[in-house]
Write a structure and sequence with these properties.
There is one protein chain. With 424 residues, this protein is α/β, with parallel strands linked by helices. Helix content is 45%, strand content 11%. The strands form two sheets. Strands 1, 2, 3, 4, 5, 6, 7 and 8 form an eight-stranded mixed beta sheet that branches. The protein has a three-stranded mixed beta sheet with strand order 9-10-11. α1 packs antiparallel against α3 and α11 crosses α16. About 7% of the residues have low confidence.
């Protein structure tokens, strides 16, 4: 297990750990840099609840002693510029004081458990005194000094450097933020967690290793953004991204349970795209009409397939095209993403959104496209979703949408396909 550094982004690694527990993945060795070393230590001692509680309650003032500014930092909606000014002031005094983090680690780290664990543990730090990296495993860390070395590994350059036996240490991320090299020659199967932290990523020959690479699927937070909401979100992303990495879910943006969609579902909307439907799709954009320029049809086909392929996790086929279109439609309708869905659930959510739209339209007698209740882009998804309507005026409008907003055109096509199936 390799945990990368990244400050507040490290909450993501707790979500990874949660998923690994559910998947019953056995870990023999844990190595980490910076916050990855801190999370790794608690993982080795086997205290998931301790780690979760620590991160759930984490604030900036539990990491850094800002003196008189402490109460100020606890304010909600604190502007980034204000935080930067506080940090600048601390740097002028020799760096930010991490005494609160040290006190926290003494509460949550059980050195005895870690030394007695069957799981080996290693970290990376950097000696400013010797100006060289330090790769060290638990057996070589003097007893009673584990917290000191954890602080040394996670000593962000803006923090006051950590002193151990008259030597000065800083964050290991400046040398190796994702320390695969510590175990690549000893362990074949490696899980790497990259939270997109700032630091050097040392190149390692992993041609003889089997690596499962877990990386945040979207931006998490700032390095020092210790806030309950961002922490909760990061943990959730870590959990779901890990399920995806172990092929438990499908999808690029959404997390869809990995099961075949045909022959097992009684949902009328779920099926591969059939030859008859492909023919209808061609007609939907006027591909068979002499009134539509073939060059336009080629351009539409190129744009739609290019966008669909971005959401497919392998070569396009009748299965992953359906999943890709499902994701695109869900995203265009802004359906909640960080949740485990069955295909039926996600489709039902799309249909609920559409029914809600129709009801509001009827109640308000809205005729024009742009309105205060729906964004223009969402209106594009709902534009005349009838696979059977192949009038030239409708086709021309669809083609304009396909050329200018291909994602929303795909969403409109998918909704039209679902409605077509409901009447068959």
């Amino acid at each position: 297990m390799v945990f990368g550094g990244g400050g507040a982004k490290g909450a993501y690694e707790i979500g990874v750990w949660k998923a690994l527990n559910e998947l019953k993945i056995d870990v023999e060795v844990v190595v980490g840099t910076s916050v990855g070393a801190l999370n790794g230590a608690i993982m080795v001692q086997g205290d998931f609840d301790v780690a979760l509680s620590m991160w759930t309650d984490m604030t900036m003032c539990k990491v850094i002693d800002m003196g008189q500014e402490a109460n100020f930092l606890e304010e909600k909606n604190l502007r980034v510029a204000s935080i930067i000014n506080i940090i600048k002031s601390s740097l002028l005094l020799g760096g930010m004081d991490v005494t609160p983090l040290k006190d926290l680690l003494y509460k949550v780290i059980d050195e005895k458990k870690i030394r007695e664990s069957k799981i080996d543990f290693g970290i990376v730090t950097f000696s400013l005194t010797d100006f060289s990296p330090v790769n060290i495993f638990i057996k070589d860390i003097p007893e009673g000094k584990l917290v000191d070395y954890l602080l040394a590994s996670s000593c962000f350059p803006a923090f006051k450097s950590q002193m151990i036996d008259n030597k000065r240490y800083i964050d290991g991320g400046i040398y190796n933020n994702i320390p695969i090299s510590l175990i690549s020659e000893k362990i074949k199967n490696i899980i790497v967690v990259d939270v997109s932290g700032v630091g050097r990523i040392k190149k390692v020959d992993t041609s003889n290793n089997k690596i499962i690479y877990i990386k945040n699927s979207q931006y998490l937070c700032g390095i020092l953004q210790f806030e309950p909401e961002t922490t909760k979100s990061s943990i959730e992303f870590g959990y779901f991204d890990t399920l995806r990495a172990f092929s438990k879910t499908r999808g690029k943006r959404y997390y869809i349970q990995n099961s075949e969609i045909c022959n097992i579902s009684e949902n009328i909307y779920i099926d591969y795209i059939t030859e008859n439907e492909i023919g209808k799709i061609y007609e939907f954009y006027g591909a068979n009409s002499k009134s539509i320029n073939p060059t336009i049809i080629k351009a539409i086909k190129f744009r739609l397939l290019r966008n669909i392929s971005k959401y497919a996790d392998c070569e396009l086929n009748k299965y992953n095209i359906f999943i890709a279109m499902l994701e695109i439609c869900s995203e265009c309708l802004e359906i909640e993403r960080v949740k485990l869905y069955r295909i039926e659930e996600l489709i039902d959510q799309i249909m609920k959104e559409y029914e809600s739209y129709k009801n509001i339209k009827l109640e308000t007698n809205i005729v024009s496209l742009p309105n205060k209740l729906f964004s223009i882009n969402k209106e594009l998804v709902y534009y005349n979703p009838d696979l059977r309507d192949i009038s030239i005026s409708t086709i021309n409008k669809r083609n304009i949408i396909a050329i200018s907003q291909p994602k929303y055109s795909i969403a409109n096509l998918f909704l039209s396909l679902l409605l077509f199936r409901s009447i068959q």
